[in-house]
Amino acid sequence: MELNQKKIISSNFFLLMLMISLYFGVFNFYVGFSLKPYMIITAVNLLLFFRYIKFSNPLQYELFMVFFIIYYSSTALQFNYPEAHLRFIFALIIILCFYFITRGLLEWCDIESLKKILSVSGLVGCLASLTYYSIGVLSVGGSFIGNSIVYGLRIDRSLPRLIGTTSNDPNIFVYFITLYFFYTLFNLKSKLNILGFILSSLCILLSFSRGAYLAILFGLVVSLFISGNLKRKVKVLFLVSGFTAIVLGAGNYFSDGLNINPVEIIQQRFNSIQDDGGSGRLYLWENALKTFWDNPLFGIGINGTIEYSTEHYSHEGYVHNTFLEVLSESGIIGFLLYLTFWVSILHCCVRLLRINSNSKFLIVTFIAMFIQLNSLSILYNESFYIALLVLFKYYKTYLKHR
Length: 402
Known about the structure:
The protein is mainly alpha-helical. It folds into 3 domains: about 1-50; about 60-110 and about 275-400, no CATH class; about 120-270, no CATH class. The chain has helices spanning about 5-20, 35-50, 60-75, 80-105, 110-140, 170-185, 190-205, 210-225, 230-255, 255-260, 260-270, 275-295, 305-315, 320-355, 360-370, 380-400; strands at about 30, 35, 150, 155, 160. The strands form 2 sheets. The chain has a 3-stranded antiparallel beta sheet with strand order 3-4-5. Strands 1-2 form a two-stranded antiparallel ribbon. InterPro entries: O-antigen_ligase-rel_domated (IPR007016), WaaL-like (IPR051533). This is O-antigen ligase family protein. One of its GO terms (molecular function) is ligase activity. Keywords: Ligase, Membrane, Transmembrane, Transmembrane helix.
């Protein structure tokens, strides 16, 4: 059924509400699982626009995504940890519903409208997160001792890390705004995006996440290589270097009053890698590899990591590496399917880049996300799937025009 102009405007408004809701994941309700705002908005979108949701032929990476999820879910048939298996399968079903419902609405959204949605939602998310972080800093009076969460502030081993309104993990917060950061970087003609770039950069800086810094830095290097001309490369270098210098200088100037010195904290974070083994990640990765060698073909089953680690290593926790987690939980077959899925994403980004240069931010975003997955267990996070949806819309639009 065709949408009239009024319905399209209404659909775009609810897409904007959905995108904004993604940045407020900490405000959820526990009903046997965490009911997040984006889930509620997705359900509302389904009810309001059910008749207008379109389903077109899937792209290559979407097929691999579905194949991988089906196979990954099938590893639950080993029944090693039934409750854990079912919990994760349920989470993946929610993600798939979110993906395909939103995909169906995006069919009616043009690229310019999508750009506005990305700009506005990201700006709202960054402003809200910085405000929530500031409230936390003021609440503790600049005393960052121990480990706790105060509003948008996570005190992690006496470090004042920003978690904002998105997640209780600063590393996951950066993962959420990676798409927005690189989108604004490549669309700086708009004053709204210039402000968004500044705020998202500040958010990333205040996360004090080593893995995020490395991923974003690598993404910036790639950005320089794919920038069309020398003027563009100089502009990117100037913006990033200038803003970093201003923020660090301001941080040093106000460090006495706020008790936050970004330069010292960043130095401390990287100097401590040798002592803390990447916050214990090296130990977790070693255990994941042992788990794989003991269960090489089919793994231990979807979401079996915590229970298996508790039984065999007396340690309850995730691997903090999505690739190793997939390897240990689904075996070599699932791991190869997951890698194929990622190769198809990057292949789609490269092909799109050849068709339209305005899509540069997408390939850089996925490269940065890929790197971040090496220090995060974040397989079913909604921010990754919203990036896939943006890729879908750009690819379908520009391939059609071609």
